[in-house]
Amino acid sequence: MSETKSKKATTDMTTGNPAKLICLFALPLLAGNVLQQLYNMVDSIVVGNFVGDAALAAVGTGFPVIFMLVSLFMGLGAGATVMISQFYGAGDKENLRKTIGTIYNAMLAGAVPLTAAGVLLAGPLLRLMNVPADAYDMARVYVMVVFAGVVGNMGYNVNSGILQGLGNSKTPLLFLAIACVINIVLDLLFVAVFGWGVAGVALATIIAQFSSWIFGIFYINKHYPELAVRPFQWNFDKGLFLRALKLGVPSGIQQALFSIGVMVLQTLINRYDTAFIAGFQAANKLDTFGFMPVQSFGIAVTTYVGQNIGAGKMERVNKGLRSALAMSVAVNVAVAILFVPLGPFCMRLFTQDPAVIAAGCAYLDRIMPFYAVFSIMFILNAVMRGAGETVIPMISSLVSLWAARIPVAYFLADRFGRDNLFYCYVIGWLAGILISGAYYLSGRWKNKSIIAGR
Fold it and tell me: Distance of CA 326 to CAs 4, 14, 284, 319, Å?
């Protein structure tokens, strides 16, 4: 049973039409991202309508703090996904099993100190961000409660990374659907019925994530018994762990520094009134619909490249890149055409305050038309990550953020007003393309395969 079922559930991306393979792999990821965004939007919609604008600002402000502290562990998971896809492409089942056991145990060992750090640092980090007084206490409660159950979030992401590395993008959608339904029901129960405010939203989140994580373990063990997850059995391979660190640490550092950059930008946003902050946070939930297609194609490309390099089929990589770029850019153009005119309507899902709606639309109008530019940088970086090159994507993303987006945001805000600071995004993306594109054209990323280096 194990061999037959696991083959049906996975996708061999080393043969067949690249565009079709990438598209079919990306579609469940896109559906999952829509669910994830619905999951996040429900939190904001519920507190925005049942608690108020300060609560809406608090939930959005707390997210960069959470993301920053978990990002190093997310990077480790990203490194494991690349290893799994390359080992799968090479048919190396023994190292597949060892990698999964090693990453799971590393995740569980890291969950305790991460939880403690999140609870203890929530207040000081929010103070550094100059969170307004009317939102600070709620933001602190939200961050502390979410970190109390952060192991569920980590476990869900590890399960998803395992399956995506194997070429299975459909099952993580099931995990996410379970979490989304639980989260929506509990959000309404805890906030609208029990009146627990942002603490209720945070509690609903961690219960939903924990439930999805546990279900994922049972699913993997049933359908992939040869790769069974045994969380409390010490199965750790130091060599594979160090290899995952080598691949994952640059991604983790990138995400951590990216989160700090978002917090610095948030500090600029927090100069203004609560309505502007709430509008920015609500619009951030909406603009993710531009990011989601790019992210989905990026994950698909990373798995596609990893499997083909693992199988020694380098000639298929460029074909996959061209297909992914064409599809990603086309989808982003369509999303921009749809979302820019519908911005005011979508903002009313969160609030009826005209000032909040105006602030959100100012953001959407200045970022959504340019997501096609972002997709070029992101897909190029995804190809290099799939090949095992993680340092250059890190440099590209950090230059895009720290050397371009943040200083440009402050310059535009001071010279042209707060609404126009959002043009900093496209300027940052263009800077990232210069680095990623030049390195891709150099071809040096082709020699980074972990299979070749064993």
Answer: 34, 20, 25, 11
Nearest Cα to 377, choosing from 323, 439, 446?
A: 439
Specify whether the CB–CB gap between 259 and 62 falls below 8 A.
no
The amino acid occupying position 142 is: Y
User: Coil, strand or helix: which one is 388?
Assistant: coil
Tokens describing residue 327: 């599809």
Distance CA 239, CA 249 (A): 15
Characterize 301-331 residue by residue with b for buried, 16 or more Cβ atoms within 10 angstroms of its Cβ, and e for exposed. Answer: bbbbbbbbbbbeeeebbeebbebbbebbbeb
Give the integer Cα–Cα distance in Å for 125 and 108.
Answer: 25
- The model's pTM: 0.72
Please enumerate in sequence order all residues whose Cβ is within 8 A of that of 342, keeping only pairs 6 or more positions apart, or say none. Answer: none
Q: Which amino acid, one-letter code, is at 87?
A: F
Which residue in 389, 363, 379 sits closest to 429, CA to CA?
379
How far is it, in rounded angstroms, from Cα 290 to Cα 279? 17
The pLDDT tens digits for 117-135 are 888 988 998 888 888 888 8
- Cβ atoms of 336 and 369 closer than 8 Å: yes
Per residue in 229-246, pLDDT (tens digit) is: 877 666 778 888 888 888
Burial degree of 237 (CB within 10 A; 0-12, 13-18, 19+): middle
In this structure, of 246-255, 283-292, 305-314, 359-368, the range with the lowest mean pLDDT score is 246-255
In whole angstroms, give the CA distance from residue 285 to residue 335: 14
Nearest to 180 by CA among 279, 45, 34: 34
Query: Residue 419 contacts by C-beta under 8 Å, 6 or more apart in sequence?
Result: 359, 362, 366
* Residue 363 binned pLDDT confidence (cut-offs 50, 70, 90): very high
The sign of the CA dihedral 329, 289, 286, 379 is negative
Return the number of other C-beta atoms located less than 10 Å from residue 214's C-beta. 16
C-alpha pair distances (Å), 58 with each of 55, 117, 282, 346 = 5, 20, 11, 20
Residues present in the chain in total: 454
- Determine the Cα angle at 303 with ends 371 and 220, to 5°: 115
Least Cα distance to 167 among 57, 392, 12 occurs for: 12
Q: What would the mean pLDDT of 41-59 be, rounded to a whole number?
A: 80
Backbone angles phi, psi at 453, to 5 degrees: -90, 0
